[in-house]
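A reminder before we start the practical. When you read a complex entry, don't treat the lines as separate problems. The point of joint prediction is that each chain is placed relative to the others, so the output describes one connected object in space. Small molecules and nucleic acid strands, if listed, are placed in the same frame. In the example below there are two entries. Take a minute to note the order of the lines before looking further.
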Amino acid sequence: MGESLASFRDLKGIGPATEARLHETGVYTWDALATVATALASVRGSGDTPREIATAIAARRAEAGEAETDPGPSNGGEHLEAFVLRLSLSADGEPQRSEVTHVRTMAERAWQGWQPTELAGFVNEHAGIRAEVDPAQESPRKASARKGQTSGEAPVARSPRRRHDAPSGEPSSARKGQTSGEAPVARSPRRRHDAPSGAPSSAGQVVLLDAGKTIGGTSRDISLVVTNTQSVGGDFGYRATLAARGLGSGRNGEGWSTLASRTGTASPSDDLTLGFGRVSLPPGVQRLQLRLEVSLPAPSARPPALAVASA
Amino acid sequence: MQQFDPNIPPYIQGDVTLVKVVDPASTFPPLEQGNRVLDRKKPFEIDVEWNVSGALAPLWLFALRDSKWNVQAYAESLGGGPEILLARDDSVTPAFNVLNYSTKLSVQANALEEGDPGSNTSGIYKLVVSVFLDSPIGLPGYDMVGFNEGPIIQIEDPV
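Here is the predicted structure of the whole assembly.
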């Protein structure tokens, strides 16, 4: 589509159901809606609401047998599934809320922020995407065909994704004291489409912790104690990065500067004491953040509930 | 973790001893009591007190007599959102014979967002007040700075 998808819900009286019906009947843009409205008005007179228009179009299509919700044998069972994704973004591009509608069933789901895994799960569930065949169990012929398909695909340009959990001066949506489920490990370009939402996907997790405030302007040793290590469930490796930013010096989640980092292993039976020697702090009151990249003993859907003990 | 610098007891140290929200509580006078749930549309005040102590405190303060204490109040949004500079005051002058200081910060109406259920805007904020006395006398650096994490407040428009 050359035009962007219109948000018909901006119109009074248009809800998700009516909007989905409009989409279902091929009306995706304001121009398309205006064309339909004008055409209907010339027949029925003025006063039609978009809801009436959508209903009328759907009714006419049903009468004409144009509904294509059931895959027919004539096209090999191929059918379309359409989803409408709405993202609410702050002025600086921070995802606030996402909402997706499955057009055919008008099912909806909403999340705070941007949850691509949840979105993929929703799409899988409502589009009925079959489980991807494990390449190891795939016949050589099919594997070869699949490989050929892949190599023939046009490259898809992807916008650079901001890491939302990076402390080192990068934009971040990290919430204070919250954990991030983004894994630090490299991801396979192919992902199982049938992975249920929230399923264990990695043995690595990133945990962001608010490490309090301190007065900067000097170089000093900083010691932090990470508690609740039993939540990891076994011995674990970690990479701990200490970051700081001046109080009030930037929008939330932005402007973190890496001060020091260290790696090691830890046991769930003891608190983890992290000592950062001779940390050089910028002047003024500084907020501290501890980023822990944790190698879990077993894949987990959620980051461990680690915490920093109060000073 | 230290909250005042310099911190060399018993020679010199300091403390921000009070951060108090003064809610005007003017919606239903005289029955209404001030509290920490504040009307977004109304201004409020923050009382701040701090002190400097130790044998070197008078000398240190005398050396910085040409500066003024910079007192700033931030609201740290809980559950997301930025720290917001609510108010500042640069009127308090240090004096070698004065070790206890205080000021009143005035926060304008509509400085903070109220909560939005279901969103990351909680409408709940932790106040952080910093006091800062700049040193113009060079190395190794004689700035005085301290902070106090004060009460948690909630912003709510009753209408």
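Discuss with your neighbour: Chain A touches chain B through 22 residues (CB under 8 Å). What might explain this?
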